[in-house]
Design brief:
two-stranded antiparallel sheet; 10 strands; TIM Barrel; 9 helices; IolE/XylAMocC-like
Length: 264
């Protein structure tokens, strides 16, 4: 199965497009998700002006922009339309008022953005995330229930699927009709303080190279092949140990992912 192997460019978010394009293509990727945030080279306020030229420079280096990680602001929709970027990635955050109220609020926000998605022809992709977010792919499916499939997509994430205790052979078929993007990263749990005699201690996610974590990339990629998915697969470049350059880890993880997918 051939996928559009992509990378999230957050580690190099301040680089201009031509420099970023050479870096990304040099690592072996032909797709990229870029952050459009206040801390990035392209900000939401400047997106209409900067994003089209930014994506043009990446394309000149053989890199297609598959999505932006940003917010549901009209200027971002307009910039994505003008730049030919098909999707805006967001997450559903949980507030102090609890899960149910937070999900209702997130749903209203998505409903309010529906006319923008339709009018500008740019999809909204919602990704699960551990912690204070809707944390499972099936939770995201519930959040999107009834919204137009052509405008609202699920972003399936290998690490967060595993952290939620799920199995890609179960979750991927269930989200297949809305599947817009697949994220590949991996994680384990590490203890944050020594365990006491009667308790198990506190644990947190620790992001690791692909072959080392809880998520089974081979199972996920095999399931995608069985489903006939041929869209972008995006390596997130998230590693908790700063001791090895992220570029080195990404080259190794891309080779591991291609091997798991049966790609040369």
């Amino acid at each position: 199965m051939t996928f559009l192997w992509s990378v999230f460019t957050k580690p190099w978010s301040t680089l201009p497009g031509d420099t970023l394009g050479r870096l990304v293509s040099g690592l072996g990727f032909t797709g990229a998700e870029i952050p459009v945030r206040d801390t990035a080279y392209v900000t939401p306020a400047e997106a209409v002006r900067l994003l089209p030229q930014f994506t043009t420079r990446l394309r000149a280096e053989g890199v297609e922009v598959i999505s932006v990680a940003s917010e549901l602001r009209e200027s971002v929709f307009a910039a994505c339309r003008d730049a030919g970027v098909p999707m805006i990635r967001v997450m559903a955050e949980l507030g102090p008022d609890g899960y149910a109220a937070s999900v209702r609020r997130a749903r209203r926000r998505l409903e309010d953005a529906a006319p923008l998605a339709e009018g500008y022809g740019v999809q909204i992709g919602v990704q699960p995330h551990h912690g204070r977010y809707v944390s499972s792919a099936l939770g995201v499916m519930d959040l999107l229930d009834g919204l137009p499939v052509e405008h609202f997509r699920v972003i399936w994430d290998a690490a967060h699927d595993a952290l939620a205790g799920d199995d890609p052979r179960v979750t991927l078929p269930l989200v297949a009709d809305r599947l817009g993007l697949v994220n590949l990263k991996n994680a384990i749990h590490v203890r944050t303080e020594p365990a006491g005699e009667a308790v198990g201690g506190h644990w947190k996610p620790w992001f690791v190279p692909g072959p080392e974590g809880l998520a089974d990339w081979s199972a996920a990629l095999g399931q995608l092949a069985a489903l006939g998915y041929d869209g972008p697969v995006c390596l997130s470049g998230q590693y908790s140990d700063p001791g090895v350059p992220v570029e080195e880890r990404l080259v190794a993880d891309l080779a591991a992912a291609r091997g798991a997918a049966g790609a040369a």
